[in-house]
């Protein structure tokens, strides 16, 4: 787990600022997600093509049909014009449902957050932490001054009570 965390920090997908807030590189995440989405569609489409091409009565007639099936499965549109009839084809579509919806949903959430700023808590948290640091420093200065005043007051009381 530590190796994965170190790899993520070095990957430039996010950087941790001085307050421990992770600031994500949305461009790199978007590109990585898109490449991953295309690779999964292409590879599962090829697996489906190999499984379905020799199956009698399969609507998958060529690789473009299989790729179309994967695209429709990943977006959960599924027009129904192309569908798998073999177990391997159905398994590939099931995997594409799970992975495709996850990837597209994640990418959609990242871009909606970036465009509309619904949950831009990193900036808010960073500003609050800066304010808290300033308040703590100011409290330390006030505490030092109060301590000196207490000492001076104790000296004044001490000297004023002597006969």
UniProtKB/TrEMBL annotation:
InterPro entries: K_chnl_dom, VG_K_chnl. It comes from the Bacteria. Residues 125-159 form a coiled coil. The keyword Coiled coil applies. The keyword Membrane applies. Keywords: Coiled coil, Ion channel, Ion transport, Membrane, Transmembrane, Transmembrane helix, Transport. It is found in: Membrane. Its main location: membrane. This is Potassium channel domain-containing protein.
């Amino acid at each position: 787990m530590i190796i994965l965390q170190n790899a993520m920090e070095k990957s430039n997908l996010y950087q941790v600022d001085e307050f421990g807030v992770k600031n994500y590189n949305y461009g790199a995440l978007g590109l990585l997600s898109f490449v991953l989405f295309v690779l999964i569609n292409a590879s599962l489409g090829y697996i489906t093509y190999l499984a379905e091409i020799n199956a009698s009565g399969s609507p998958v007639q060529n690789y473009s049909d299989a790729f179309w099936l994967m695209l429709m499965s990943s977006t959960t549109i599924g027009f129904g014009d192309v569908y798998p009839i073999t177990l391997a084809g159905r398994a590939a579509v099931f995997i594409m449902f799970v992975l495709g919806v996850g990837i597209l949903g994640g990418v959609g959430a990242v871009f909606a957050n970036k465009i509309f700023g619904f949950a831009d808590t990193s900036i808010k948290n960073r500003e609050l932490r800066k304010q808290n640091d300033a308040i703590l420093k100011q409290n330390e200065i006030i505490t030092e001054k109060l301590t000196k005043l207490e000492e001076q007051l104790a000296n004044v009381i001490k000297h004023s009570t002597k006969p």
